[in-house]
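Researcher: Quick one. two chains, 642 residues in total.
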Amino acid sequence: MMLGISVIIFGIIQAAPGGPETMLLQSGRIVDPEVIEAYRVRLGLDQPVPVQYVRWLGAAATGDLGQSFARNRPVKDVIFEHLPASLELMGAAFVLAAIMALLLGVVSAVRQYSWIDHLGTGFSFAGIAMPVFWFGLILQLVFAVRLGWLPVSGRQTVGMNSFTDHAAHLVLPGIVLSLRYVAGWSRYLRSSMLGALRSDFVRTARAKGLSERRVVWVHALRNAMIPVVSVMALDTAGLFSGAIITETVFSWPGIGRLFVVAMTQRDYPVLMGILLLGSLMVILFNLVADLLYGWLDPRIRYE
Amino acid sequence: MSVSTPQVSEAPVLVLEDLRVSFRTDEGDAEAVRGVSLSLGPGESLAIVGESGSGKTVTALSLLDLVPRPVGRTTWEALRLHGEPLPGPGDRGWEGLRGRRIAMVFQDPMTSLNPVMTVGDQIAEVLVRHMDLSRKAALEEARNLLAQVRIPEPARRLADHPHEFSGGQRQRIMIAMALAGAPDVLIADEPTTALDVTVQAQIVGLIRDLQRASGMSILWITHDLGLVAGLADRVAVMYAGRVVEEARATDLFRSPAHPYTALLLRSAPRLDGALERLAAIDGQPPSLLSLPSGCAFADRCPLAEARCREADPELREVGSAHLAACWRSDEVARMGGGR
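Model:
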């Protein structure tokens, strides 16, 4: 699986026009072709593509993702440096999205066709349709610039290292990144809950005299969560790529922004490292989805 | 079979007067139940018999106020348990009664149990809810209940999920859950329809044994006349949302006083008779959306005459503890056709 992905990643990067050397050319100075050639030799770019691939793959398998062209440091170090900020943002967005989607999904289903259900439907359409960068800019404009309640961007105020300062910086990007997941997951949960609430075992639970709260939040929800949880697990890998735009808008010093910067610098080893990490996450969360599925649904057992 | 005389003299356990249920549909209101009255004596078995759509299951669900709102609209004149009025439709106070004073066993044991909860937890939550037991004590009691409904190795099976049991066993678990609250009235809504014939007899036998031991009253909901003959003291036959005949089981089978009952008896296979072609009742039940002004059965009735289409006959006494809603009930016995 990973092998196939690595070929694709490498292929796409190779197919892109230009290379690290074009950065030298763009600097405006007249560069001696010999200098460029020396540069290419030093980076190993003079070798045939298959050779480059095998070299890269061999190193990647042992955890060595090579050297960053632009930074002259191991790719691994560069990525790990930016990873905590990204995980923090993804974690915050995930928790926020999960809680909001749970509440919105369950309430919309229990009060089907009520004003709150219609509001939820409208919100979901807006959440899925709205461009992330635009929503981010609006929030920045309203809450940071106009109202001044929250910082515009970054991860912390220079010279401050308090928890509240940190959390305040997390609020806006967290909301922006979670938006489309709240929208999607609450819709899934709503339809799944509607099915569960109409099922025979929910009628049985009511006939047993259980409180409506227990009927909804235990009997119906536990069944309704089964399909939703696997969607959530798969989407969590997607948070990784969703973070690219959000991090750029909010100058969040995470992987997403590193990716954009590396792209403009044509820092291929870094790009490939991030893509590889991203696909690793997708595979990992696929596994997590399967495991959760088996844990939630006792009818499925892995031998 | 033991068909005891109904204890008419004793105060009834459950009394229902003039139940009406209608469902909103795109084509208008469907009147599913149109003025049903029932009473159930202590330890008595009353069977409601009728075809699909006759309103028998809706009647049963109404007794627990489980008809879905706002699609269904329920009203009744009176509903009393041991002489005390129960909450009105949609009122507060039902949760404490359901599963405690009135319990229900449903038709399909495959879908009526929660697939992701252990059967132990599903039985125990009734005990925690109604009997004020701790979860630990409730699980202990759940084990006893599983033993009572004859599930082998009950202690081990508490931790199993519904899919690990056979259909018959699942229905036994449903029964254990219904018994957990020690109810006064058990409603059994076609509890054997989804099961194999041999298992059906076991389940019926089990419910009868449990009734004898606890003295609870049972309301059987069924379309199976053969089943009724063996287990009910009294029978109420429903057609198009009404009770059209009500009598002691023996009387009903011996001398039906409504043409629909008579035809229904003829359409059931007999074990003692020779192999005959089963009689079918011609025609379709009327649409509940636009019921005729006269008797709902008139269009299918061999005895129908002009007045049947003009006025709907009320349920009236035609014999000792025998009610029928037919203008010509005296002539049903001489009704021709069929065998």
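The first strand of chain B starts at residue 14 and ends at 25.
Researcher: Thanks, that's what I needed.
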